[in-house]
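Milestone 3.1: sequence recovery, worked example.
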């Protein structure tokens, strides 16, 4: 299985009214070069939602994603997988040339994936897979489920380990550069919430624009950090490539 785990593709800007304006997502850290390398044909693009029932929001994000790819790397047809089309999941996965697992609320998306048995079904696809943010985190076998909403980090019943798609053993923390000064429930997100969890798991902090390419080896592109045993270590720079052991 060939995959990319990333924080985001730079798909759009916002105007003065916060409307999303699609743009060419470019080639930061050679991501467009890699997509071109691994996508064999450009017939069918499948956008997998983060919330199966929030169709209106899904359509907004899917629309700007499709328009951005039309500007950057156009496909003939674009499809959405959510509650409206989940009965066609086998057909959609079988036809897909590129599967895009979008971002959103991590545990909500994880539940959707479990509901449609995506873990079992996606292993048969021949498509190249890109996971953005939550989509990338849910690609792991054992998903590190970070608290995201107020109260989650204080909830003793909040489950920080979920069953993912099993496409990789790598756990990432996307948008790492944004989380550096983030506070949740009165705590520093990185130092007080995430780092204690790294005593029992390894997490890669991936800046916006950086990503991990899964092939025969695991290749890290762009600025990133290793969070392990309660410590943080910078392990890569922008425009550089590192093989992860």
């Amino acid at each position: 299985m060939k995959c990319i785990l990333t924080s985001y593709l730079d798909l759009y800007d916002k105007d003065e009214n916060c409307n999303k304006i699609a743009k060419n997502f470019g080639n930061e850290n050679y991501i467009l070069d890699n997509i071109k390398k691994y996508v064999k044909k450009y017939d069918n693009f499948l956008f997998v939602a983060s919330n199966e029932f929030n169709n209106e929001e899904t359509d907004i994000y899917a629309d700007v994603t499709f328009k951005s790819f039309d500007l950057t790397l156009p496909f003939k047809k674009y499809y959405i997988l959510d509650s409206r089309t989940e009965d066609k999941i086998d057909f959609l996965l079988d036809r897909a040339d590129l599967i895009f697992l979008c971002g959103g609320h991590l545990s909500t998306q994880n539940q959707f994936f479990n509901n449609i048995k995506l873990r079992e079904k996606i292993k048969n696809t021949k498509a190249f897979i890109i996971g953005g943010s939550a989509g990338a985190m849910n690609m792991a076998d054992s998903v590190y489920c970070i608290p995201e909403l107020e109260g989650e980090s204080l909830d003793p019943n909040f489950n920080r380990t979920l069953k993912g798609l099993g496409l990789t053993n790598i756990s990432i923390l996307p948008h790492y550069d944004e989380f550096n000064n983030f506070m949740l429930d009165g705590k520093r997100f990185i130092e007080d919430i995430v780092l204690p969890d790294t005593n029992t798991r390894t997490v890669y902090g991936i800046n916006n624009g950086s990503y991990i390419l899964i092939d025969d080896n695991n290749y890290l592109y762009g600025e990133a950090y290793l969070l392990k045993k309660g410590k943080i270590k910078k392990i890569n720079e922008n425009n550089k490539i590192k093989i992860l052991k």
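The chain has a mean pLDDT of 97. Residues 55-72 form the longest helix (18 residues).
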